[in-house]
Amino acid sequence: MFVLRASVWLKALAQFRPDIADATEAAWKARVADNGFIRPGKDEFAAIPSESVDYAVMERCPADPKCGFAVKMVPLDAGWSDLGAWEAVWQVSPKDEHGNAAQGDAVIESSRNTLVHATSRLVSAVGLDNVVIVETPDAVLVADRSRSQEVKKIVQQLEQRERSEGTLHRLVHRPWGWYDSIDAGPRFQVKRIMVKPKASLSLQMHHHRAEHWIVVSGTAEVTCGDKKLLLSENQSTYIPLGEVHRLANPGTIPLEIIEVQSGSYLGEDDIVRFQDTYGRTSSSK
């Protein structure tokens, strides 16, 4: 654990790794405000050299007489763990008499020293020893407990195969709310969409898909071509392929809808945006 003033750190970084300092400053200058979030410039941030603080600064400073601050070490006896691996999660979790730890809806039988982390459904384990099972709506990980950090190799494979699971959660947050991709198949996709009060999606159109919207709760203001209508709970509408449209929430409570997409291509990059409250120009709702 490092404790120091931000000004001291920036000075040291500029001295020992000016390339990192300059690239970070460029990403900060390219930042945008997004509904309470501050987002550095995406391309500029990706260009920042990747190196740990240990190698970049801390190991160089004590040996450099020009270093502007002294490095001192103080023992800390606080039972510290940064929970950087699932092995660490197992270590700090309550366990049964066989060393098993369970979080969420889990049933474990005839197993020892196993961690089951369930977030969205029932997970059962039988006859396991020193295993980690992590279930999320996005994916399921099963690994030897001592090798759980090797999940990064799986992430590398996902990137090589251009799988979306490596970069995008099923539940995706946007400035106007969020959407959850709950089902998909050939030529169709189903999403649950929440729009915050007084928020709206961009005015947009799609080249390859049509959409059906069903209101679950709240009030929807729908722009479809030159028409504008209000929909309440259990009402629905149809957005034809190629039609300019927008979804907005004029009410004071969250709007939830179910969106059923159908068409030859359902990727998030099939969006032509005409107007956007949040200043976005890239694809995605």
Automatic annotation (TrEMBL):
Residues 110-158 form the MannoseP isomerase/GMP-like beta-helix domain. The keyword Ubl conjugation does not apply. GO terms for molecular function: GTP binding; mannose-1-phosphate guanylyltransferase (GTP) activity. Keywords: GTP-binding, Nucleotide-binding, Nucleotidyltransferase, Transferase. Residues 162-276 form the Mannose-6-phosphate isomerase type II C-terminal domain. GO terms for biological process: GDP-mannose biosynthetic process; polysaccharide biosynthetic process. InterPro entries: Man1P_GuaTrfase/Man6P_Isoase, Man6P_isomerase-2_C, ManC/GMP-like_b-helix, Mannose-6P_isomerase_type2, Nucleotide-diphossugar_trans, RmlC-like_jellyroll, RmlC_Cupin_sf. It comes from the Bacteria. It catalyses: alpha-D-mannose 1-phosphate + GTP + H(+) = GDP-alpha-D-mannose + diphosphate. Its EC number is 2.7.7.13. SUPFAM superfamilies: RmlC-like cupins. This is mannose-1-phosphate guanylyltransferase. The lineage of its organism: Bacteria, Pseudomonadati, Pseudomonadota, Betaproteobacteria, Burkholderiales.
